[in-house]
Amino acid sequence: MTGVALNTVGAEPADLLGDYHRFVDRLDLDSGQRWQRRRAATCFVDRHGDLPVWMNRPTPARLADLHRPKAWPFLTWLLVEGHLQADLELLLAKPGGVDLGLWWSAAHPGDVERAQQVADRLGWSANWARQVIRHTAPVLCLWLGKTLAELADGDFDDAAVEADRIDVRASTRDRFAGRCLALRQLCFQDGTVQQPPRDSRAAALSPPEHAARIAQPEIRREVVRYAEIITTTLRPSTAQMRIKAIRVLADWLATRHPEVARLDQLDRSRHIEPFLVWSRSRPWRGPNGEGKTVGMTVFHHDLVDLRVFFEDIAEWGWAAAPERRFIFLSDLPRLPEPLPRALPADIDRALMAAVSALDDPFARVGLTVLRATGMRAGELLDLELGCIIGFGGSHGSWLRVPVGKLGTDRMVPLDPEPLSLLDAWITNRGPQRSLAHPRDGHLADFVFTERGRRIGAHRLRVGLQAAIAAADLRDRAGNPLHVTLHQLRHTFGATLANAGMSLPALMALMGHVTPEMTLRYARLASPTIRDAYNTAMAKANGRRSVFVIEAGTNRSAPSKVDWLYTEMLKTRLAHGFCSREPVAGACAYANICEQCDNFVPDSDRAELLEEQLADVHALRDDASTRGWTDEAARHDRVADSIDRHLAGLRRRDANR
Known about the structure:
With 656 residues, the protein is mostly helical. It has helices at residues 13-25, 31-47, 51-55, 59-67, 72-80, 88-93, 100-107, 109-121, 126-144, 153-165, 170-190, 207-211, 217-230, 236-256, 268-280, 296-315, 345-355, 361-373, 377-381, 416-429, 458-471, 485-498, 503-510, 515-522, 527-544, 560-564, 606-626, 629-655; strands spanning 388-390, 397-401, 410-413, 435-436, 443-444, 449-450, 453-454, 572-573, 576-577. It contains 28 helices and nine strands. α18 (361-373) runs antiparallel to α20. It is elongated. The N and C termini lie far apart (128 Å).
């Protein structure tokens, strides 16, 4: 049974019946079909002559009344011609095969044509456009008694409320709700309504609304007052997180200490300390964390927010403020400081090669721009038309990254590849109506919109997983490699840090507001740090290897064994040993004579050359073991030269 049945009958049933008969006579039907429709309408009027009374019958009864005489064509004519205004329950419960959409479309060709043009511009499929324009639009317009051009924002809100109230199948209700969102999108792009479709999820509670859910009346009054104050200066997300932390304490008090009705009744030892113990491993609040406990970061942030809350109301002189401080710096756990999770170079190359071949153009463009600019995913999705700025000359093109997570605006240079991808996307984007920015409500022409709506980060994640699968990237267990969107930002920062970019420049590119955030990239394994380490270790190792001749001894040089195994750059000399420190680098004069083309070895001293060759081989092996590749290569060159000299001596002896 419907709650209200609207009636706009302006003529007697007999007059309506005569008009309908004349209408049927003009239809392209054979005589038998015309007779059947006239007879069905006559039978229906004979049984239910008082249409307003009949409209108040239960919907199942009305459906039966229309089914028996096959009177749906007559009712459809009444609705389309405006002689009767039906309720939404009857319109949604109509069976298949009723020509309601066909007759309504014929009666409003201008509305249908304009709506179809907008649907084509949005890239809708023919089937989806038909469902929305020729099935849902007639239902909504006939229920409201309006044309498509007369619909307003409130009409769609009223339809959503009415659809939840009436008695129809859940599948019918869901299908109608989805098509109404699409119809609203179409009307918004056409300029008929001013508000785009809203997310079907419930809107997040504001900080004062969160505070209003605290159970204790006096505590609730103080926290609501506090929420109203901090929302004037803090960002909405920051204020919301602080009130959520206060609610955690208030809910715990309501369960464990119901006698605490005011904030000034709190005690550190009886209330706060047990709360700290419980809060460290408290259950996660909300459906997404069912069965989980909060991590160290959430625990830390909750304590910081509670500490700030109590300090604020104490400094403001509120009567409800406790007399003593409850939470101290020593109560705050030290958070771990993990390094940025940059991708290894080989995985980075393989992943981005797979990204360039993705089928989804948005994922291909978005992931490439994320990797090339170091933007956060939210900043990418907030890009507006005009974000590409060309300074000309050697300055090239830059990308203006919008205000994002940390409330900063910055410029990032654009390489040719991401620049061309962005240009192609903007060219193919087509005209889209401006949408309200979620941050401050100003109208913005977002770069990444499709079919009149903003694209979400979900498609970026799907594209990233597709690229991982295409590149066959796996972990040690053989599972697909786990990569997040934010790791592309870390890889961008790590690449620049490893290439030697200064930290102030890197800080500007990454959009960091404190140097500490950028210094994390300085702790990565960069070539600069490696070179500094190698230089220092070479000096240290060299100092440990200096020969010290003991006083009072006749020993003027180390033994051959000692010399061979010290950490020195060694050169075999005919009259002694060389002990050059590694920090000094390879000697340009080492064994220069043995390698000279003018050197002629003495045939009587061949055994000395063989002994020198053995020493050179030992020195080469020692240098290779220590990782001194340049030194090992030098010894190889000396050994090759001595081998040639010995071979010449052997040939000379053989010819004698």
